[in-house]
Write a structure and sequence with these properties.
Elements (H helix, E strand, L loop, with lengths): L9 E5 L3 H13 L3 E5 L2 H8 L7 E5 L7 H10 L8 E6 L4 H5 L7 E5 L3 H20 L4 E4 L2 E4 L4 E4 L2 E3 L3 H12 L4 E3 H9 L7 H15 L6 E4 L3 E4 L9
Parallel strand pairs: 1-2, 1-3, 3-4, 4-5
Antiparallel strand pairs: 6-7, 7-8, 8-9, 10-12, 11-12
Helix pairs in contact: 2-3, 6-7, 7-8
Bound molecules: calcium ion.
The site of calcium ion (CA) has 5 residues, from loops.
């Protein structure tokens, strides 16, 4: 059995491979989660909107009746499920940037075959993020060696203040407020620069590079996901992927 500490929450698993779904259900329950399983897309959509609405949805991309992308899109259209984090399970080589991008809007993804442990870490990151949102984040946010003051727009690494431009600060804040979640270049462009900004996704990479350099040792908290975008680590102690 996995030992990762306990955090309750209701997880909906939408997965047509019965053996895999059963394994996930068993392991998630062992970890203290409540679990609902749906073996088809339509069943999954119904289950997602049934009270109580799940806290996290683990969604297989390849389902026999409805594509996972379509399910995710429909979940985003409904008020009740709009903010429920979705972790998409994809096969290697599928268009991950499309899955986690604006087009579909998944919050994170795992590539099959994934380890149950990995999936549970991702689920916990989503739940933690939800709790933080619900409680409202304080102005001072600490993360390992890094500390930022949201209101004063100041940042420190190991207590030394880092001089950041306004844009770099917004970028860092966008990363830190979505710890453990995939952030595509397009999403960052929209959130940090504004959707109408006349800049390309290359600009994002340039600024992330500069931000990382300024952060020094703390720059390692920002992971590059090749072909997808970036992810700020969910925990400072998280090992490199
Ligand atoms: Ca499948």
């Amino acid at each position: 059995m996995l030992r990762l500490g306990h955090m309750s929450g209701l997880v909906l698993v939408i997965e047509d491979e019965v053996d895999l779904a059963t394994t996930l259900e068993y392991n998630l329950r062992s970890e203290g989660f409540q679990v609902r399983v749906a073996h088809s897309g339509r069943q999954g959509l119904t289950s997602a909107t049934t009270d109580p609405v799940p806290d996290v949805i683990v969604l297989d991309l390849m389902l026999p009746d409805l594509a996972g992308t379509e399910i995710c899109r429909r979940l985003r259209e409904q008020d009740r499920t709009r903010d429920v984090p979705v972790i998409m399970c994809t096969a290697k080589g599928e268009e991950i940037d499309r899955v986690v991008g604006f087009e579909v809007g998944a919050d994170d993804y795992v590539v099959k075959p994934y380890s149950v442990r990995e999936l549970i870490l991702r689920i916990r990151a989503q739940l933690r993020h939800r709790t933080q949102r619900a409680e409202g984040e304080p102005s001072l946010i600490r993360f390992g060696r890094l500390e930022i003051d949201r209101d004063a727009h100041r940042a420190w690494v190991d207590k030394d203040e880092i001089a950041l431009t306004a844009l770099e600060f917004r970028l860092l804040h966008a990363f830190m407020s979505r710890r453990g979640r995939v952030q595509t270049r397009d999403a960052l462009l929209s959130d940090v620069w504004g959707i109408d900004a006349d800049v390309t996704t290359r600009t994002v990479d340039t600024h992330v590079k500069r931000l990382r350099e300024k952060l020094g040792e703390a720059g390692q908290y920002i992971e590059t996901l090749r072909g997808v975008g970036y992810r700020f680590k969910s925990d400072p102690e998280e090992a490199d992927a």
